[in-house]
Design goal:
Strand order of the largest sheet: 2-4-5-7-6
CATH superfamily of the largest domain: Histidine kinase-like ATPase, C-terminal domain
CATH class of the largest domain: Alpha Beta
Distance between the termini: 69 Å
CATH architecture of the largest domain: 2-Layer Sandwich
Strand content: 15-25%
Number of domains: 2
């Protein structure tokens, strides 16, 4: 009887090993197929999206070199502006592709430090310069926001991608609004133990990027965070990676991002991130102690 159980156990172990081996091989094969597909899409996207800005740079530099002594100062300025805009576009495309590669490979590392959300938002707004001149910008920041422990660079990229998306998909003179607030939440019943309640209270950073444009087709909202997804009949330009990267960076902070259409028109991206907070005095003390 014992030998029979032993044989059954042995057969079961062998079958389990074989099943896991097959599953592993299937997973590896699936990952290879996915990697090849990602590589092909990245390559096609890169070659397609870089043609226009590269052509613009070549044309502008040729004109500058050929007519250096004949061009007016205004013409020179316009050509240099074209080169600058095209260069920024190339940089954005390459940056998005590199960020997506980091997310796909699992090599993304979060480097959190104390962040002033006001500084974060204005650094994003200032990076757009002329691109926002045809839109109305509104900034609503809670003046009593504490410092939040975040990865400044990643969150900067998140907001840049959301603002860039709003600029692309709204008409001129549309209103783009950036909002920052926070909320505290406590779980459980702590009436008898105040210290326990304090330990359980969590702070959340709330960020919104909204506009009063046309919004998103209701049947496409669920797809906007997918890699390489672009709205049907959308304007040319972009790889369809911006929102996917924003989602990845927010989730790397253990946060969540969602898109809704405003009832009065337009779209709203809402971000909610659990984060450590600190008063300015406490943060300075901690930064000093780490030096």
């Amino acid at each position: 009887m014992f030998s029979m159980y032993f044989v059954i156990a042995l057969v079961n172990a062998v079958l389990t090993f074989k099943i896991r081996q097959v599953e592993k091989e299937a997973t590896e094969k699936e990952e290879k197929v996915k990697a090849i597909k990602l590589y092909d899409v990245l390559l096609n996207s890169l070659s397609h999206e870089l043609k226009t800005p590269i052509a613009a740079i070549i044309a502008a530099t040729d004109n500058l070199l050929a007519g250096a002594n004949k061009l007016s100062e205004e013409n020179k300025h316009n050509l240099i502006s074209e080169i600058s805009i095209a260069s920024i576009r190339i940089n954005q495309q390459v940056e998005n592709l590199l960020n997506m590669s980091r997310l796909e490979s699992g090599h993304l590392q979060i480097k959190k430090d104390w962040c002033d959300v006001t500084e974060l938002i204005y650094s994003v707004v200032n990076s757009f310069e002329d691109k926002l001149k045809n839109h109305q910008l509104k900034i609503n920041i809670n003046e009593k926001l504490p410092l939040f422990k975040l990865d400044f660079g990643l969150m900067q990229q998140v907001l840049r991608n959301l603002v860039a998306n709003a600029i692309i998909y709204t008409e001129q003179n549309s209103i783009i609004t950036l909002t920052a607030d926070n909320v505290m939440e406590a779980k459980g019943d702590f009436k008898d133990n105040l210290s326990s309640a304090r330990e359980t209270i969590k702070q959340f950073l709330l960020l919104e990027v909204s506009d009063n444009g046309r919004g998103f087709p209701s049947n496409e909202v669920k797809n906007v965070f997918n890699e390489f997804y672009r709205l049907k009949n959308s304007k040319t330009g972009g790889t369809g990676l911006g929102l996917s990267i924003a989602k990845g960076f927010v989730e790397a902070h253990n946060g969540a991002i969602q898109l809704t259409n405003n009832t009065e028109g337009g779209a709203k991206f809402f971000i909610r991130i659990p984060a450590e907070t600190s008063s300015l005095k406490q943060a300075k003390k901690e930064c000093t102690s780490h030096r």
